[in-house]
Amino acid sequence: MKSSPWHRLSLRTRLALLYGVLLAVILCVLGGGLYLDTRRFLLDSTARRIRAQAKPVIEHWLYPGEFMPPLWGQKGKGRGSVNLARIAPFLARDLTSRDTVALVLDSHGKVLAVGKRLPEEPPAPSPVPEYYSRALAGENEVSYTAWVKGHHLLVLYVPLRSTPGGREILGAVQLGVYLAPVDKVLFRQRLVLLLGIGWALLIGCGLVFILTTSSLKDLTRMVATCRAIAGGNLSQRVDLPKREDEIGELARAFNDMVDRIETSFEAQKRFVAKAAHELRTPVTVILGSLEILMRGVQDDPTTATKLIQNMYKEALGLSRLCEELLDLSRLDLSAHVNKEEVDLKEFFSSFVVKASILAKERRLILREGPPVVLRADTRMLEQILYNLLDNAVRHTKRGQEIAVGWGIEGEEVKIWVADEGEGISPQDFPHIFEPFYQGEAGSGKGGTGLGLTLVKAMVEAHGGRVEVKSTPRRGTRFFLYFPKGQF
Ligand SMILES: Nc1ncnc2c1ncn2[C@@H]1O[C@H](COP(=O)(O)OP(=O)(O)OP(=O)(O)O)[C@@H](O)[C@H]1O
Ligand SMILES: [Mg+2]
């Protein structure tokens, strides 16, 4: 699969980028929210200020009372008869100032008067029916912003009512407020926000980059160590004793793994060396005997027969060793366990008959346990017991007792082989399951030291375990524990 450009970036660049994007989004949302809120506040307060300023002027012209009769309609017609067309120019003029331009509309939207007199006063935006119609319909808070000839304006509409708070609308006043001061404040705020966000991003990403670089330095060292180990130097370790974080944890787990690999690698090397040694001895004997035979020892039939018998014995040993090595390698692949239901009572009664030949003048006793059906490979179970029995026979004297039996312990089936022999010395005890290990008592009695290795491997291939108890000169007991199978 092709790696994406994102995955081609280094981890620290990716982290810095991710952090940068996240920071940018957060800052933009916060900054943008703050900016929009300020903008709304400034526009609202401007609109409120202009409306508050316009209110007394409008009231002055619309509801003047008795002291301004000429601008009203005919005397006696009452308040509703105000002539908007006549007061419009005055209203527009008084509502217009340096930053506001007023425009008076009648109830049909027709412009009655424009307040702009001086060139520095902002231009009046043309009335937009969509908005003024709402004011003419009685809405008090109509406003929008617009650009008129390069000027930014806030446009407000104030409905003109015939009586204060009355329903009859005579027209509306449009107030165009110059937004330059507000825009200036907003521009400054935008600038501060953008610069602030830019700096925050730069500093944040820089810090993340520096921090990740120092954190990942140890990972880079680990990669170098991995490469050295892959190159064959299994003694290498990652040295990060001070790190308590995830990388420290990773380093410790990594070191543990390399420890285990090194141990098993060493064990394998020892195994191969010992196997080669064990194979070489009989091969040397056979070759030597053959050489003598070839040199013409046929004239001496006694020597020839002796040599041939010797070769046969060595070849038998070789064949046994090969068989055991093959068994071990099969168990390593753990693919050759043909489990079947084994009734231990039946199994042991036939086993004891066959084994009594092997027991050679020792008293082989079967101590039966409760009826149990075990899920196991019969051939392997036999081989396990033959190996244990073979050891027991080797390390006991004639007439001594060797007992085999079974029982149930909790969720496990226990099979045991006990002898009253010489026992295992404390020096040998920790090593007896090692391949090719032969104790002092074991060496010189034939065999290769693979017997117990095979026993352990076979029991474990069944999901079980082996325990040993031994007292020198009193005897040895091997216990095999198998999980009770489900039937
Ligand atoms: N029942 C026992 N009593 C005393 N020592 C024992 C007993 N069983 C095993 N040992 C010791 O453990 C060693 C390893 O046993 P193991 O069966 O692996 O090898 P071996 O019997 O010497 O050779 P092999 O089984 O390959 O013919 C023996 O050499 C012996 O010193
Ligand atoms: Mg043995």
Q: How would you describe what is shown here?
A:
With 487 residues, this protein is of the alpha+beta class. It folds into three domains: 10-186, PAS domain (Beta-Lactamase); 246-332, Signal transduction histidine kinase, dimerisation/phosphotransfer (DHp) domain (Helix Hairpins, Orthogonal Bundle); 340-483, Heat Shock Protein 90, CATH 3.30.565.10. It contains ten helices and twelve strands. Strands 2-1-5-4-3 form a five-stranded antiparallel beta sheet, with helices on both faces. The protein has a five-stranded mixed beta sheet with strand order 7-9-10-12-11, covered by helices on one side. The chain has a two-stranded antiparallel ribbon with strand order 6-8. A hairpin with a 4-residue loop joins strand 1 and strand 2 (111-114). The protein is rod-shaped. 23% of the residues are buried. Mean pLDDT is 87; it is low at 69-80. Residues 387, 390-391, 447, 451 line the site of magnesium ion (MG).
Write the layout of secondary structure elements.
Elements: H1 5-8, H2 11-62, H3 84-95, E1 100-106, E2 111-114, H4 129-136, E3 142-148, E4 151-161, E5 169-178, H5 180-230, H6 246-294, H7 301-332, E6 340-343, H8 344-358, E7 363-367, E8 373-376, H9 378-394, E9 401-409, E10 412-419, H10 451-461, E11 465-471, E12 475-483
Parallel strand pairs: 7-9
Antiparallel strand pairs: 1-2, 1-5, 3-4, 4-5, 6-8, 9-10, 10-12, 11-12
Helix pairs in contact: 2-3, 2-5, 6-7, 7-10, 8-9, 9-10
Bound molecules: adenosine-5'-triphosphate and magnesium ion.
Low-confidence stretches: 69-80
- Count of helical stretches: 10
- Which oligomeric form is depicted? single chain
- Rounded to the nearest angstrom, the distance between the terminal CA atoms is 47 Å
Strand order of the largest sheet: 2-1-5-4-3
Helical amount among residues, as a percent range? 40-55%
Counted up, domains total 3
Assign the CATH architecture of the largest domain: 2-Layer Sandwich
General form: rod-shaped
Mean pLDDT: 87
Bound molecules: adenosine-5'-triphosphate, magnesium ion
Main sheet properties: 5 strands, antiparallel
* CA-atom Rg in angstroms: 52 Å
Count of β-strands: 12
What name does CATH use for the topology of the largest domain?
Beta-Lactamase
